[in-house]
Amino acid sequence: MESLSGLIEQYGKEYPREAEKVSLFLQFLRGEELSEELSRGHFTGSAWVINRERTDILMTHHAKLNLWLQPGGHLDEGEGALEGALREVKEETGLTGRLLKESLFDLDIHLIPARKSDPAHYHFDIRFFVEADSKTDLAVTEESHDLKWIPLDQVQLYNRSDSILRMVEKTVPFAVSPVFGSIDKEADYRQRVGVYGLICDEAGRVALMKTFRGYFLPGGGIDEGESHEDCLKRELIEEAGWDVSMGDYIGLSHFFGITPSKKLPMQLSGHYYRAERTGKSVAPVEEDHEVEWFKPEEAAQLLRLDHQAWAVRKAFF
Q1: What is the pLDDT of residues 186-228, one digit of tens each?
Q2: Which domains does the chain have, with CATH numbers?
Q3: Model pTM?
C-alpha cells in the first residue's frame, strides 16, 4: 500500500468535494501550522465494516461517547492507519476484517469532548472499507455497550450525523438495495443522490407533487454540503412552501437509466423519510409544482417512478 500522504492525495482526487478537509489532513501530516484547536489532535484509524452479503454494517454502541459508531480508535506507536483500524476491529468486535478497497474510504475531522483528565481534542480519522463474516459470534468488550449488524437502510436510525450518512452513500455501489431500471455495462452513469419525504395529512393521505411530467414524491437532489435534513427542508420550501420536520428513515433505492430531464445515463439513489408538515412558510419557488393528496395505495399507483412507488409501499403496506 502506498504512503499515507499518497493515499490522502488520491482520496482528494476521488472526492474533489472534500478538498478543504483533504488539505487540512495533509497540512497536519506534514506538521504545518494549523489553528490552535486543530493542532491539539492526532490521527486515528477506523473501519466501516460490511458483511459478506453486502446488506449490513457493523456498528458499536461506544461506551464513552454513547453513540453508535464504526469500530476504530487510537493508533499504537509505530502503527499504520490500516493496521490500527484492523486491530481495532479485532479488539472491539472479535472479528477479523478483510480490506475491500485499497484506497481510503473516508476521512473525517471531529471533536472529542473533554473527559476527566483528558482535554478536548480533535481526531483526524482515517477510514477503510472492510468486510467481515456476520455469522461469526460478536465479542462485546468494555469499549462498547453493544455491537450490532445494522441493515444499510437503517443505519440512519442509529446515527444521522453527516459523517455516518456520507459513508452510507459511499457504500451504495457495493451494497444490496432495491434496483430499478436496467444497467448497461457500457454506459457511464452519473450518480445523483436525493432525499424524499412521505408526508401525510390528518386523513392519512400522502402528499404528491404534480408536474407536467406526472406525479412525484416531494424532495430532490442533495446540493453540495447539504445534509439529508437540509436537503429535504430546502426542497419542501421550494416545491410547496412548507416547513417540515424529518421523521423515521424508510429506506434506500437505486434507479439506473436515462432520465427524462437530463437525457443522460443516471444512477439515482433515493433516501426516503417520513416527514411532518410544521407550517406554511412562503410561496413555493417552483410554480409548476402542485400538491395533491392521495390514499397510499392510490399514490403508489400514480407515481411515475417505480422506485418512489416502492418507498410508499414499504412505508405503508
Answers
A1: 788 888 999 999 999 999 999 999 999 999 999 999 998 899 9
A2: 4-165 (3.90.79.10), 179-316 (3.90.79.10)
A3: 0.61
State pLDDT tens for residues 2-36. 689 999 999 999 999 999 999 999 999 998 877 87
Query: In Å, how far are 21, 39, 187, 192 from 42, measured between CA atoms?
Result: 15, 8, 42, 34
